[in-house]
Amino acid sequence: TADEPVQKILDRAIIAQKTITANTTEAINIFTEKVKSNYLREAEIEARKDSALAGGEFRVFYQPKLNIQQNRPDSAEALVRWYDADTNTFRNPSEFVPLFEANGFIGKVDRYVYVEVCKYIAEAVERGLKIVPVSVNVSRVTATQEGFVDFYVRTKRKYNIADNFLTVEFTESFAFENYEVLKDIIKSLRANGIRSSIDDFGSGYSSYNILKELEM
Length: 216
Prior knowledge:
six-stranded mixed sheet, single chain, 50% helix
């Protein structure tokens, strides 16, 4: 309104400007309370991400995969959740993963989860427990970072994980849009005993030619 302080109006304009997303054709963004709340939430996540990772706030859960033919779990998928001690709740990945993919921090989270999985498997082996293959999600950002394959292979060897007990899951869009890059990555991973798969195949970019050509 006309009687509001100029600084308050400017602050709102800046928030509206900063929240224009890269995937829109709109040149104008209107300030609303929802825009403000989203901006503050993202700013809070951005400010806390490093300390949260260092403090172990990102927790790994293992979701069983059921073998339908044998009617029993025979593998698992590692899923990351962010524990918020202030509210004693877990943040859903939809709250932070898109932001981390945009600012590149997802690479650190992906590597952290992978290391935690390797530690978990190694400790289970040491205790004489039965282990099953575990799959981990890898974002497009992580997969295209320099040294990606080297890090995943070195970590597998460091914890002495047997071949074919780790699977890296790539998004379907990455497989579709970066076919040649992914082909080389899969070849290198497979040569070092790490399997690959496509996450949520059929959700948007499906091409059975990809499955025929890639060793998924």
